[in-house]
Amino acid sequence: MIIKKAGFGNFTEAFIEDKLNNGVNIIFSDDNNKGKTLVIQGIMYALGNEPIFPSGFPAESYYFYTQIEINGENIEFLRHRNSVVLNYRAALNIFDTISEMKYFLKSENIIDLPIIMKDGREVIADLSLFYELFFVGQDKRNPSNIINYGYNKKQDFINMLCTLNGYPLTDIQEDTKEIVEKIKVIKTEINTTKKMLKLLKTDSNLSIYIDKYSDDLSFVELRDKMKKTHQSIGYFKKKRIAEINRKIRLEILIEELNSLNRNIEKGKIICADCGSDRIVYTNRDLSFDASSPYVRQKVMNSIKFQMAQKDEIITEISRNIHKEQDKLKELLIDTPEELQKILLYSEEILSGIEFDNKLNSLNEELRTLMQKNTSINNSSEEAKKQAIEMKYAIVDIMKTLFLEVDPNGRLTFDDLFTKKNVTYSGSEEQEYYYCRLLALNSYFEHEFPLIVDCFRSGEISTQKEKIMIDTFKKTEKQVILTATLKKEEYDAKKYDEYDNIQVLDYSVNQDNKILNQNYVNEMTEILNKFCIGNVAITS
Q1: Whole-angstrom Cα distance, residue 450 to residue 459?
Q2: Where are the alpha helices (DSSP H) in 260-351?
Q3: Cα torsion angle, 523, 527, 528, 532, sign
Q4: pLDDT per residue as tens digits for the range 330-365
Q5: Residues 313 and 460 both lie in one domain
Q6: Which of 49, 193, 367, 481 would be a feasible disulfide site paired with 455, CB 3.0-4.6 Å?
Q7: Domain that holds residue 122
Q8: Are residues 478 and 391 in the same domain?
Q9: What is the tens place of the pLDDT at every residue in 41-84?
Q10: Does residue 89 lie in a domain region?
């Protein structure tokens, strides 16, 4: 993937960056507040990353644009708040949420986002989690956890790396707990059946026998399992209802847009207040000039695609509901009836032959479950082994990179993340992120650029910086770095000494005012390409 062009703004002020090349790019200035971080964060924000803009920057007032080349194709992203329009293969695809765009990128194989285990369910990794594979922002850095900490945790990041490595980690406890519980129930039922066979031979008056199997602990465990399954069913049903409602809204939009195609023989529709005949289609965050049949058709094509995608999502959610309902049926049918059988000996209606058949069937089911449990454990152990080997391999690369940059340094790496109580001083934090970023790139050999905002953080020495830049050049891929130079460094034109590096000087930008009118025409062309109407953006 190559970042070809980026920008942000609106119809009154904007900034465009189109000078990035396919090698190492350094965006620098002689002071802070020149817009370097806004450009980097804007690039990633348009691609679906969580917002990490500097405080006080009104991101909700602007559109963010990024053009990339991936798999030999040019793709354009335009984001406003949580809505994104993606220009892909001459079609506009409109997404009301980043999650919708995530599914599109995965389904169209634009970005092969890994599937990870999250809260006991398989989910597609969030974009913000995936982007930490190759992007280090300036703010919210925390070596003991991922940068966009919140819904995702560092274990999710590790799980994602394991999936990329070909050995996805599963929650062995969640996978085997149900099997173990089932084995316990079957073993109990086998014992009961054997008892019944014996009793049939010795005493036909079974009603006098009462078993004490159903102790309090068993009922507590049963209740907890049923509660968890009910919660899962409720979660998926809410999710399905939400998707159905979104699809209905899309169907209504199609009807409304179709109605605009009908010709009115005597007159036309105009605004009663201003007299304008322009019609604007607006979703939650974006507005499109629907007066044009061409724009309407583009919007309608995108909506139709979303409707088809909603059908797939609803079907998948329904499958999950059915799976959870099957689990509940097992709890409601198998376990409670077994308890009742044991307590009341209702099996007395069965003949001795039926008990023999039942015993054989139970023994066969027990063997199958135990084999499955062993297989899962073996598979999980292999995945854990591969995860440990992967971690050690990446950490070894980090150690090598660190010794190259700082042979006398005191940092020691024994994991991808540090302990919570470990603090870095000076340039150590930046060295850690540099080593981790390049180690991940080396291990996975991924196709994405390496992006580091403020890569000289912590007063990286000139010698260390030179080693870092040389190492970045050796990757032979696109690298985008930002740096703030001291006055003497800037006056000495320090980056002129490097060959084959694109240097972009942002010093000419006004403090805290990178946006200006010079780029408005170009931004307007971009917005027009996405059929965005020139309407006021409200907060």
Answers
A1: 21
A2: 293-344
A3: negative
A4: 765 555 444 434 333 433 434 444 666 677 777 777
A5: no
A6: 481
A7: 2-171+383-529
A8: yes
A9: 999 999 999 988 888 899 999 999 999 999 899 999 999 999 99
A10: yes
